[in-house]
UniProtKB/TrEMBL annotation:
Gene3D superfamilies: 1.10.1740.10, 3.10.450.50, Winged helix-like DNA-binding domain superfamily/Winged helix DNA-binding domain. Interacts transiently with the RNA polymerase catalytic core formed by RpoA, RpoB, RpoC and RpoZ (2 alpha, 1 beta, 1 beta' and 1 omega subunit) to form the RNA polymerase holoenzyme that can initiate transcription. This is RNA polymerase sigma factor. Signal peptide: none annotated.
Length: 356
């Protein structure tokens, strides 16, 4: 760590370094997820976790033995996130359906570069960070609180309300613990929590989001049909997989579409621009997802097109979010996927996941 050490700070001993690493590393993934929920950005979350660990490491000898090490890391991480949000032009990150009404117009291909868009979170990063065991003190189960729609909803909360809701209703901390961490009174935490819950109730009238279950046989068949529809450019088969009131968004393009008919019209227009697609199964935000590769003509390589996140309800697609260029290449790296698809990779992965 010496190359990144802040100047004019006493450095922990080698023994202290080893102890810090042993204590801190088990919390890295859950802290990254916490920062992602706070910020709505995978890449900002990675930076803030690095900042958290650097700050904690440099202060470790002064902290040692004063209380809960995990709570101390969360305090540093949460305050770092709050500082980052305060320095932003906007504290919110968005999905297109949160900013404007649905449209029937075709997009002009120009991204809304002045908007901070929500990013997906690779499900591979959730291992060890999402606890399947129910926390009796938490209002939202871990897998509910990582879904794309939930993360999008809490981005619209003021930063402090967002922090309180995550600490109390997702992590299951008591109001007194949250007050100590955030530096406020218990009544102020309870007040912020109540306001946050009231805002979320508008998005979730039943109190909670639908839990994204592990794909059952019918859903796996649905995903297989989805893949084939894209690769065969079979518009009828694709539209048949959608709920009547399905929604389609594609950040950073601001346009979005509601309902089968509007979505069909869009894809009838969009698919004409490509020679074809190849889809590789992945997962994001605890939901089924695909990495789509496209080409403009038959002799061109398959290049990164989009990360596609599906929300499934009653064995049909309720919402489809495509994260497209210019952000998609950066996201492909985050998902551990190549920007150019080797000829054998897509088939190999589909066979592994029984989607061929």
């Amino acid at each position: 760590m010496t190359a990144a050490d802040p100047p004019h700070q006493a450095q922990p001993s080698n023994r202290s370094d080893r102890k810090f690493e042993r204590l801190a590393e088990p919390f890295r993934r859950e802290l990254k997820l916490h920062c992602y929920r706070m910020l709505g950005s995978l890449h900002e979350a990675e930076d803030l976790v690095q900042e958290t660990y650097l700050r904690a490491w440099s202060s470790f000898e002064r902290f040692e033995g004063r209380g809960s090490f995990r709570a101390w890391l969360y305090q540093i991480a949460t305050n770092a996130c709050l500082n980052a949000l305060a320095s932003r032009k906007s504290a919110q990150r968005w999905l297109p359906d949160q900013r404007a009404p649905a449209t029937a117009e075709m997009p002009n291909g120009t991204p809304a570069s002045d908007v901070a868009w929500l990013e997906p979170y690779p499900s591979s990063n959730l291992e060890g960070a999402v606890d399947d065991a129910p926390n009796p003190e938490a209002r939202f189960a871990s897998r509910e609180a990582v879904q794309l729609a939930f993360v999008a909803a809490i981005q619209q909360l003021p930063p402090r309300q967002r922090a309180v809701l995550l600490l109390c209703d997702v992590l299951g901390w008591a109001a007194a613990e949250a007050a100590t961490l955030l530096g406020g009174s218990i009544p102020s935490v309870n007040s912020a929590l109540q306001r946050a819950r009231e805002t979320l109730a508008k998005r979730y009238p039943n109190g909670q989001p639908v839990v994204a279950s592990q794909p059952n046989r019918a859903q796996k068949e649905l995903l297989g049909r989805y893949l084939r529809a894209w690769e065969e450019l079979d518009l009828d088969s694709f539209v048949a997989l959608l709920k009547e009131d399905a929604t389609y968004t594609m950040p950073p393009l601001p346009q979005w579409y509601a309902g089968r008919r509007a979505i069909r019209t869009f894809f009838e227009w969009a698919w004409k621009n490509y020679d074809g697609y190849r889809l590789v199964p992945t997962a994001a935000n605890g939901q089924p997802a695909f990495a789509a590769y496209s080409r403009l003509h038959a002799s061109a390589p398959w290049g990164a097109h989009s990360i596609q996140v599906l929300s499934i309800e009653h064995d049909m697609i309720a919402a489809l979010t495509l994260f497209v260029k210019p952000e998609s290449p950066r996201l492909f790296h985050a998902f551990g996927l190549p920007l150019i698809l080797p000829d054998d990779l897509g088939g190999e992965l589909r066979s592994t996941l029984h989607l061929a």
